[in-house]
Write a structure and sequence with these properties.
This protein is α/β, with parallel strands linked by helices. It has a domain at 2-51 and 91-153 and 249-311: FAD/NAD(P)-binding domain, CATH 3.50.50. It contains eight helices and 16 strands. Strands 1, 2, 6, 7, 8, 9, 15 and 16 form an eight-stranded mixed beta sheet that branches. An eight-stranded mixed beta sheet has the order 3-5-4-11-12-13-10-14.
Length: 318
């Protein structure tokens, strides 16, 4: 049995940020993830300067490409306007690996199957044990399923389904573009050029609203591809999108039970307007670590619920 102070289930931004804060304060931890890093993770990858600062990252210390946007081209029901902003975009394939590596946490490639509380220890698959447990395993996190699903059921109306693809392409237009509610999509679509010749295109929408109208994300995806081709943004590309799901911010009654904590997408913290999850994930991981280090109360009340104030530079939060 491998013992440590804290077991972090999931090595994405929430888990890595939590582990980083713990180790900086001399608390031992182990990160478990079913995927080897770097791992494929399609994502628009938006982060604010405040998020970068919170993980002690800037253009000089980050070894990979950062794409800076000072404005977005926004389309809403045929209207077009330029939205001033101060945002960066990263590739999750690079960023997540970098954040996990810089945490200096002990990492084990492990697909968690069973978690139980035995006296004062959390035991994972009879191989790992710890006094504290952090669930950072995303939408289907086993920590949530085991300890929180009954006490804190998530609202199905907050579930977002998404399709996206990130690939290398000879991009001609380097402006980020957002399409809201086109063809009655209950959500929005995006085109995000990135460094080193990559581009991310995708869309997300409320699952319940799509089902209610007997609509499918695949139909909307086909319409998006047509738009990309007709406007000359993408051409002669055989799209192979990946699907995933996540929950927008909600008020779960229990985010800590005993010494078990939920962070990031395991908790459901994506912003209510843009579905942005990297900043909230990192902040929640740090807050959970602080609660463990100081023996205090874990709360995510300080994490903003909306992205647009930050996009417009109206607040300092991240």
């Amino acid at each position: 049995m491998i013992k440590t102070d804290v077991l972090v289930i999931g090595g994405g931004p929430a888990g890595a940020a939590c582990a980083r804060r713990l180790i900086q304060n001399q608390v031992s931890c182990i990160v478990l993830d079913r995927s080897e890093f770097p791992r494929f993770k399609p994502c628009a990858g938006w982060v604010t300067p405040q998020v970068l600062k919170s993980v002690e990252m800037d253009g000089n210390s980050y070894p990979f490409g950062l794409t800076e946007f000072t404005s977005f081209d926004v389309f809403i029901n045929g209207l077009r306007f330029k939205l001033p902003t101060h945002q960066y975009s990263i590739r999750r394939f690079e960023f997540d690996h970098w954040l996990l590596q810089t945490s200096a946490a002990e990492f084990h490639l492990h697909d968690v199957q069973d978690i139980r509380l035995e006296k004062d220890e959390y035991v994972v698959d009879d191989e790992f044990s710890a006094r504290y447990l952090v669930g950072a395993g995303g939408t289907h996190c086993p920590v949530y399923t085991t300890f929180f699903s009954k006490a804190s059921p998530k609202a199905h109306g907050s579930l977002i389904v998404a399709q996206e693809e990130e690939f290398q392409f000879n991009v001609k237009d380097t402006r980020c573009k957002l399409w809201f509610f086109e063809n009655h999509l209950p959500g929005y679509a995006w085109y995000v050029p990135k460094k080193d010749g990559y581009v991310n295109v995708g869309m997300g929408g409320f699952m319940e609203q799509l089902k209610r109208r007997s609509d499918t994300l695949k139909d909307h995806w086909n319409l998006l591809v047509r738009r990309l081709e007709e406007t000359g943004l993408i051409w002669n590309h055989a799209f192979k999108p990946d699907g995933h799901s996540y929950y927008l911010r909600q008020n779960l009654p229990e985010i800590q039970i005993g010494n078990a904590f939920l962070v990031g997408d395991a908790l459901g913290l994506a912003t209510l307007d843009m579905g942005e999850g990297i900043g909230p994930a990192i902040k929640s991981g740090q807050l959970a670590a602080d609660a463990i280090i100081n023996g205090g109360t874990y709360s995510v009340a300080s994490i903003p619920r909306y992205s647009f104030p930050s996009l417009l530079g109206l607040r300092k939060g991240g």
